[in-house]
Amino acid sequence: MSTTGVSEETAAILSGLEGFLRAEVFPLHEEYAAVLNDQRGRYDETGRHVDRVEELRRRVRTASAEAGFFTMTVPEDLGGGGQGAVTTYAAWELVYRLSGPHRWLAHDVLAHWATGPSFVFGLVSADVRERVLPGLMSGEKSMCFMMSEPEAGSDAWSMRTRAVPDGSGGWRLTGTKQWTTNGPYADYGLVFAVTDPDALARRSGGVSAFLVDTGAPGFRVDSVISLYGESGGNHAIISLDDVHVTPELLVGEEGQAAGIGLGGISLGRMYNCAKSVGLARWALDQALDYAAERRSFGRLLAEHQGVMFPLAECATYVHAAHVLGLDTAARIDAGDRALKESAMCKILSTEMATRTIDRAMQTLGGMGITTEIGMAEAWHMIRTVQIADGSAEILRRLVAGRLLAGDRDL
């Protein structure tokens, strides 16, 4: 584990996190391999995780919360550890480097802002915070982020979900949400809906956020979205049919939820950068170990320049993405929104990881495409990350716009 570029405090946290993963999480994948490591046991006929899988996910979250890792990035005034962006980035990178794609329960060890406690709860009423936050902080409960729609992906201004006043200070929500991560399993949903169509048309606001109980009448998971040929998944299409929300369920100010969404997406981009670098490091480690042991044409693979030079190039880009990630996180900790830098970081990190995993797969030859190794699963994860929280094309548009606007501090 490399701790270069981080403080002694962060290095100590990373060391403790590694110990927790190895002692408490990874053994579960051996004990419950039949349901965790084989999709035929992981999903039911609807595409949802079977009860045992959700039980194990909850077990990991609650154990991590007790150990102090799950909520370490939640703001201190909400009861969390208050760790900044650098520690958050480094911790997520470590999780994915150690776990890879197969030991995926590890991906629940840290609270992700869209599925667990986060800054969002500084924007809710005291009553809602006292009622909802403890369950999320303990890991017993989870949530989902509901912004994307069938006709509104990167262009959030095309949102169609509506929140209509009900005459008593509350609203009625109607619409459809798509690509909702953790949607099939969440206890609460952070729903974005249009409350002022005129402001939305001017692209000057008009979108509000609401914290909704997923058991509320009219809230329905229509289907689970499966990816890359799997029989189930973690994403959902969700319908809201006249869902009633009371005034205290408004998050932040009415009509001003765009800032919440953008803030969350920025955090999501840094998470995806760390995930990309972590998985790339995992893949590179697999390839290097294999090249140092496997013989071909009477020599170790590592003695063939055609094998090692591409891996050396991959290592160069892995390091570059890692350094850019730490630099971007440090800018965020210093109070910079780092819009341009986080976009650059995601472009570099995700495209680098795609190339690195592909090269590692080729290095392993036939073993590289087996389910046993997990290289194909890692490639699938990275291809998904390349689209989440802004595709590379959308992010290049953002970077170009910032450069033309004079933001040229590189």
UniProtKB/TrEMBL annotation:
Keyword Hydrolase: no
Source species: Actinomadura decatromicini
One term of GO molecular function: acyl-CoA dehydrogenase activity
Keyword Ribosomal protein: no
Cofactor(s) annotated in UniProt: FAD
TM region(s), chain numbering: none
SUPFAM superfamilies assigned to the protein according to its UniProt record, in alphabetical order: Acyl-CoA dehydrogenase C-terminal domain-like, Acyl-CoA dehydrogenase NM domain-like
Keyword vocabulary terms for this entry: FAD, Flavoprotein, Oxidoreductase
One record GO biological process: fatty acid beta-oxidation using acyl-CoA dehydrogenase
This protein's name: Acyl-CoA dehydrogenase
